[in-house]
Write a structure and sequence with these properties.
33% helix; 385 residues; 2 domains; Alpha-Beta Plaits; 9 helices; 4-stranded antiparallel sheet; Aminopeptidase
Length: 385
């Protein structure tokens, strides 16, 4: 098998030139439907069967299936098709190539991985590799915000294993952190700024909470770290309180992001915050506050000796000329959703830089290496039961 480098570069350039900014990072006018339809055409040209799934209007994910002869293990090759915003990003959709790198929004995060998936299936088709099991490509919407795209896909699609092609610098990623978004609201009583005997300042109350939240943040980073992803953490992300300079704030609202490590749960993270609030009430019965979850996504950890990890490790070693390093990542991926669905999952992707930054690029040789690793792994993994 060989990777068609021209096909790979042309495919990636076409993907980068399509504006697929997640609506959360735009005025809401962008959507993933257009790029999903483009991917569907590419998949159909490779002889794949197609399915599309809309998690919401214009929030389209696409799945292509290369049928095996039957009786073999099935494998998903995964990439998300949305990107973060392009505001004030020069040449965001240019797909310019300089010194072996392609520049533009999504090259690194993660249209390079999507292009590698397509090039891998093309290599399998061109070489007429006999497959017993199915090989699928998933192009998922909305990974950059709430992963409603992959959540919808997993209501309809299953496989024995999956390879997520998020960028890992050609390292084997076996774990990543999860997150819990939560809201804390402190309650006060609005009054004229001159009426201290009547007003209760919700912002001051939030300040008392923030002092103790800082203690929790420091204690999290002192906890025993996970061997691949390190310790848990949190930060106070967004805060809003008060309605005017001469008015006591009736409410103050704080959004917190808590990054979780394997073994931690949403319930545990919420309980830590509730414990702080309960202690503040014990110190001052007039203190009033509440916490509620906004969104949570679990962490991910793969077994080092799972069948798909073994297969990727073997083929990556052959392609790269050495054993790939085993790493964890601090950010969240759809790998967690795949693993939670009972799909044996591993992560490996290309080299580059600039995820969510003003300049973003991917190394094209590394994308080619990922494509070859995917193709060889599929040939190995899907050949037998």
């Amino acid at each position: 098998m060989r990777i068609d480098r021209r096909y790979l570069e042309d495919t990636l350039a076409a993907l980068v030139r399509m504006n697929s900014v997640n609506p959360k990072f735009s005025d809401g006018s962008t959507n993933e439907r257009g790029i999903a339809e483009h991917l569907a055409l590419q998949m159909r040209a490779l002889g794949m069967e197609l399915s599309t799934y809309d998690a919401a209007p214009d929030r389209t994910s696409v799945v292509g299936r290369l049928r095996g002869t039957g009786g073999g293990r099935s494998l998903i090759l995964y990439g998300h098709i949305d990107t973060v915003g392009i505001h004030e990003m020069p040449e965001a959709l240019g797909a310019e190539i300089r010194d072996g790198r392609m520049y533009g929004r999504g090259t690194y995060d993660m249209k390079g991985g999507v292009a590698a998936c397509l090039a891998a299936v093309k290599a399998l088709v061109d070489a007429r590799v006999p497959l017993a099991g199915d090989v699928l490509i998933v192009g998922a919407a909305d990974e950059e915000v709430a992963s409603i795209g992959m959540s919808e896909v997993l209501r309809h699609v299953r496989a024995d294993a999956a390879i997520v092609t998020e960028s890992t610098e050609l390292q084997l990623c076996l774990a990543h952190k999860g997150f819990v978004w939560m809201e804390v609201v402190t309650e006060g009583r609005a009054a004229h700024g001159s009426r201290f005997e009547e007003g209760i300042d919700a912002n001051m109350a939030m300040g008392r909470f923030l002092g103790r939240l800082g203690n929790l943040e420091r204690s999290l980073r002192r906890r025993k770290p996970h061997p691949l992803v390190g310790p848990p953490s949190l930060h106070a992300a967004v805060m809003l309180g008060g309605s005017g300079t001469s008015t006591y704030a009736a409410h103050c609202r704080l959004e917190i992001e808590r990054r979780t490590i394997p073994g931690e749960t949403e319930g545990k993270a919420l309980k830590e915050i509730q414990t702080i609030l309960d202690r503040l009430v014990a110190d001052d019965p007039a203190f009033r506050a509440s916490v509620r979850p906004m969104l949570a996504r679990g962490s991910f950890e793969a077994a080092r000796d799972s069948p798909i990890v073994d297969a990727v490790r073997i083929e990556a070693t052959a392609v790269l000329g050495g054993l790939p390093a085993v790493v964890g990542e601090p950010y969240w991926m759809d790998a967690a959703l795949l693993a939670d669905a009972g799909i044996d999952t591993v992560v490996i992707g290309p080299t580059g830089a600039g995820a969510h930054a003003e300049e973003e690029w991917v190394d094209l040789a590394s994308v080619e290496s990922v494509a070859l690793i995917l193709a060889r792994t599929a040939a190995r993994y899907c050949a037998t039961v």
